[in-house]
């Protein structure tokens, strides 16, 4: 465990987050031609660990988008050795700039959604609202976001995260004005984060 601000020891939120599960982004599926408006296609989708490239999950799918008023996407996969096989309706709207915008119809709420999610413990892909999911940045306390922002800026300067670390030297090619501005922002963020954490700990004490 590192010093203050170098770890996650002060995270209290336990609300499930989108990033811990699987997600289907309809616009991305169309853009990557996994599914094609006007066509009936099938295939499989694979999720991989971003660090190792190891496959972590996969699902099979079939999408009938020939008629916008009767379009659907079938999803089939195994969840904890239990087979799941169901259709998700697809619908469209007409944006002001023209063309068609495709949407999932959430199997749980019946509302339009651009993305569907399958969190740990879930059985169906559904909207974020159906599962009460947050994005990781939303579930982090404000002081945690401040710390993460400070760590990110330290890395931008070529340094290491951690409030007890010295400021790294100015990167080659960076203007002094930019370097000083970033250092001032890091200093402010770390001060705000530590102050908020200490006040919170005093309140609990």
Q: Can you give a write-up of this model?
A:
- This protein is of the alpha+beta class and 205 residues long.
- It is built from 5 helices and 8 strands, in the order βαβββββββαααα.
- Strand 6 and strand 7 form a beta hairpin.
- The longest helix is centred in the C-terminal third of the chain and has 29 residues.
- The N terminus is likely disordered.
Radius of gyration: 22 Å
Structural class based on helices, strands and sheet pairing: alpha+beta
Q: Write down the secondary-structure element order.
A: EHEEEEEEEHHHH
Number of helices: 5
Overall mean pLDDT: 79
Question: What about the largest sheet?
Answer: 6 strands, antiparallel
Spatial order of the strands forming the largest sheet: 2-3-4-5-6-7
CA(first)-CA(last) distance: 22 Å
Percent of residues in helices: 25-40%
Shape: elongated
- Total DSSP E strands: 8
As for the number of domains, it is: 2
How large a portion of the residues is in β-strands, by DSSP E? Answer: 25-35%
Low-confidence stretches: 1-13
List keywords for this structure.
205 residues; 2 domains; alpha+beta; single chain; disordered N terminus; elongated
Layout of strands and helices, then pairs:
Layout: E1 22-25, H1 26-31, E2 40-48, E3 55-64, E4 71-79, E5 82-93, E6 101-105, E7 112-113, E8 115-118, H2 128-131, H3 136-139, H4 142-156, H5 176-204
Antiparallel strand pairs: 1-8, 2-3, 3-4, 4-5, 5-6, 6-7
Helix pairs in contact: 4-5
């Amino acid at each position: 465990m590192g010093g203050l601000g170098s770890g996650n020891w002060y995270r209290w939120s336990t609300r499930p987050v989108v990033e811990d599960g699987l997600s289907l982004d309809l616009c991305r599926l169309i853009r990557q031609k996994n599914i094609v408006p006007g066509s009936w296609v099938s295939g499989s989708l694979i999720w991989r660990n971003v660090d190792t490239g190891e496959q972590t999950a996969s699902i099979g799918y079939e999408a009938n988008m020939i008629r916008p008023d009767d379009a659907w996407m079938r999803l089939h996969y195994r969840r904890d050795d239990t087979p799941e096989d169901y259709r998700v309706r697809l619908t469209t709207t007409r944006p002001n700039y023209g063309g068609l915008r495709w949407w999932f119809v959430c199997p749980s709420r019946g509302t339009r959604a651009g993305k569907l999610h399958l969190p740990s413990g879930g059985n169906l892909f559904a909207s974020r609202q159906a599962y009460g999911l947050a994005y990781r940045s939303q579930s982090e306390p404000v002081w945690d976001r401040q710390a993460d922002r400070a760590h990110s800026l330290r890395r931008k300067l070529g340094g290491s995260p951690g409030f007890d670390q010295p400021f790294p030297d100015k990167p080659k090619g960076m203007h002094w004005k930019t370097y000083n501005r970033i250092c001032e922002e890091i200093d402010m963020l770390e001060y705000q984060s530590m102050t908020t954490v200490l006040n919170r700990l005093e309140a609990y004490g």
